[in-house]
């Protein structure tokens, strides 16, 4: 989907159409624009631009705070349409999905007809301002490449016949999975565009850049290295971050916010019946620089208290060199929750208590029952839109 | 101009076989005819499921919320040019 969050806002409110619109993580001057409308991009307000800079570029830009429920709900409606065309649909992000049309379309021509029909149905059944770019090809890598470089709101098919001409002269970072650092490494090997990557010696690239280098080479050569998954792949980590409205060195305040981030991560962890064996805690300073610590935990974490017991000491022990502007916590090494008892404490009844609190909050609304450490923080670290892959169809 | 309202409203709604369409609503003594339903989205608030209708007439954008727990309607937002 193109300029997705901004397009959804323009879909909801037609008076915003034709005007530069930026959907922001926060509306504070340093808040980041997470989606710019086509009109905003045309005047130079791009995704990633901060609010203060956007207002300098165009004082008339309409800046809106993001509304996660609106985008998730719209995505659900779009993905429901897509799911009618195949049994193999992989939601890749809040606004992207892969469809394996093998068995549903005999050739590229039929796949194109399906692609255009889906894009039209999104317009007629969800909203006429929502435009989808469709990429058709024989692999996930090339289909994504086609939708990225193709006409916005249109369709591009990559076949063996037009592949070389589309890769020729194309910047390396235009391809999925090649960032600035990888592009620099490829440049060092004498690879300056995607066609040169395609023509590079397979064994040599594997030797020099490892398995990842081979995946990129295979991608541009139209070799499938990962098929379309059914549904969203299981998450590798679950995390939350928050840009603080109050930049401070006050550890009491920072600890309370960090606890709430642990609760949010814990809620999602428990919702998926997972436990975590790794944690990362991160904080960044207003003046630049950061504190961070990542480590494996001695025991798996499931309850908010178990996550907080690992996260809070990182902050408590840290010597803060200046006011903190952002805090984040993420848990990884996710496995299905076990019923293993601990020799040291009654961990099972604590798990049950956490589940019971979640149940109350599911029924009566988020934060109906809260831990004392989070008292008074209802307006802090509210729900934010993520680009996570867990979209319900 | 964008305004947060959050006030109860009376709404005349058409229920057809596949969709629900608010057609008129009365707010602060004035009746508004809904010309277009631009977007419908939903959100869970605990056990309550709320349906939001982003609608417009020729001069205004409104966001109406329908709360399924008590079958009530509220006008949440208003946007007009100028």
Q: Give the strand tally of chain A.
A: 11
Instruction: Assign the CATH topology of the largest domain in chain A.
Output: Alpha-Beta Plaits
Tell me the domain tally of chain A: 3
Query: Overall pLDDT of chain B, averaged?
Result: 93
Please report the total strand number of chain B as a whole number.
8
Order of helices and strands of chain A: HEEHHEHEEHEHEHHHHEHEEHEH
Give the overall average pLDDT of chain A: 90
User: Unreliable segments of chain B (pLDDT under 50, ≥5 consecutive)?
Assistant: none
Largest sheet properties of chain A: 4 strands, antiparallel
Work out the oligomeric state of the chains in this entry: heterodimer
So, CATH architecture of the largest domain in chain A? 2-Layer Sandwich
Strand content of chain B: over 45%
What is the molecular shape of chain B? globular
Which pair of chains has the greatest number of interface residues, and how are they split between the two chains?
Answer: A-B, 19 and 18 residues
Indicate the structural class of chain A. alpha+beta
Order of helices and strands of chain B: EEEEEEEE
Enumerate how many helices of chain A there are, as a single number. Answer: 13
| CATH class category name of the largest domain in chain A | Alpha Beta
Structural class based on helices, strands and sheet pairing of chain B:
mainly beta
Terminal CA distance of chain A: 16 Å
Would you give an account of this structure?
- The complex is a heterodimer of chains A (393) and B (82).
- Chain A has helices at residues 4-12, 38-42, 51-57, 68-82, 108-126, 140-149, 160-167, 180-188, 194-199, 202-220, 251-271, 304-317, 347-364; strands at 21-24, 33-36, 62-65, 89-93, 96-99, 134-136, 155-157, 237-248, 274-285, 290-301, 324-336.
- By secondary structure, chain A is an alpha+beta fold.
- A four-stranded antiparallel beta sheet of chain A has the order 8-11-9-10, with helices on one face.
- In chain A, strand 6, helix 6 and strand 7 form a beta-alpha-beta unit.
- The mean pLDDT of chain A is 90.
- Chain B has one domain (2-80).
- Chain B is built from no helices and eight strands.
- Chain B has strands at 2-8, 10-15, 20-27, 30-33, 36-45, 48-56, 60-67, 72-80.
- In chain B, the strands form two sheets. In chain B, strands 1-8-7-6-5 form a five-stranded antiparallel beta sheet, with no helix packed on it. Chain B has a three-stranded antiparallel beta sheet with strand order 2-3-4, with no helix packed on it.
- Chain B is globular and about 40 Å long.
- In chain B, 22% of the residues are buried.
- Classes of the chains: A alpha+beta (393), B mainly beta (82).
- The A-B interface holds A 8, 11-15, 69-70, 73-74, 126-127, 361-366, 368 and B 36, 38-39, 41-43, 45-48, 52, 54, 56, 61, 63, 79-81.
């Amino acid at each position: 989907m193109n300029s997705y969050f901004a397009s959804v806002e323009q879909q909801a409110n037609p008076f915003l159409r034709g005007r530069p619109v930026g959907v922001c993580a926060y509306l504070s001057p340093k808040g980041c624009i997470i989606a710019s409308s086509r009109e905003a991009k045309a005047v130079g307000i791009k995704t990633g631009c901060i609010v203060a800079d956007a207002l300098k570029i165009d004082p008339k830009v309409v800046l809106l705070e993001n509304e996660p429920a609106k985008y998730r709900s719209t995505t659900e409606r779009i993905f429901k349409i897509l799911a009618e065309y195949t049994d193999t649909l992989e939601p890749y992000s809040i606004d992207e999905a892969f469809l394996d049309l093998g068995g549903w379309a005999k050739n590229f021509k039929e796949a194109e007809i399906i692609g255009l029909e889906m894009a039209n149905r999104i317009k007629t059944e969800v909203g006429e301002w929502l435009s989808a770019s469709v990429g058709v090809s024989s692999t996930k890598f090339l289909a994504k490449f086609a939708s990225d470089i193709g006409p916005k709101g249109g369709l591009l098919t990559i076949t063996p016949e037009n592949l070389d001409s589309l890769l020729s002269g194309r910047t390396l970072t235009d391809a999925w999975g090649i960032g600035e650092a990888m592009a620099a490494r490829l440049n060092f090997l004498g690879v300056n565009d995607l066609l040169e990557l395609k023509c590079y010696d397979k064994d040599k690239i594997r030797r020099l850049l490892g398995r990842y280098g081979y995946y990129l080479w295979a991608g541009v050569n139209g070799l499938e290295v990962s098929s379309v998954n059914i549904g969203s792949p299981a998450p590798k980590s679950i995390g939350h971050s928050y840009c603080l409205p109050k930049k401070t060195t006050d550890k009491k305040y920072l600890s309370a916010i960090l606890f709430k981030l642990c609760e949010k991560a814990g809620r999602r962890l428990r919702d998926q019946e997972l436990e975590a064996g790794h944690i990362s805690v991160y904080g960044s300073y207003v003046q630049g620089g950061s504190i961070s610590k990542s480590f494996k935990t001695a025991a798996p974490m499931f309850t908010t208290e178990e996550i907080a017991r690992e996260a809070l000491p990182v902050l408590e022990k840290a010597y803060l060199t200046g006011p903190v502007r952002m805090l984040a916590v993420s848990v990884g090494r996710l496995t299905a929750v076990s019923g293993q008892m601990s020799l040291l404490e009654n961990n099972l009844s604590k798990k049950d208590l956490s589940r019971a609190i979640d149940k109350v909050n599911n029924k009566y609304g988020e934060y109906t029952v809260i831990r004392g450490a989070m008292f008074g923080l209802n307006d802090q670290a509210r729900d934010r839109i993520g680009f996570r892959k867990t979209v319900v169809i | 101009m964008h305004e947060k309202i959050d006030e109860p409203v009376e709404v005349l709604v058409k229920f057809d076989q596949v969709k629900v369409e608010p057609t008129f609503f009365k707010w602060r003594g004035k009746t508004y005819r809904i010309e277009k339903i631009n977007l419908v989205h939903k959100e869970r608030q605990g056990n309550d499921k709320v349906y939001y209708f982003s609608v417009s007439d020729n001069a205004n954008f409104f966001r109406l919320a329908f709360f399924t727990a008590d079958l009530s309607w509220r006008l949440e937002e208003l946007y007009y040019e100028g």
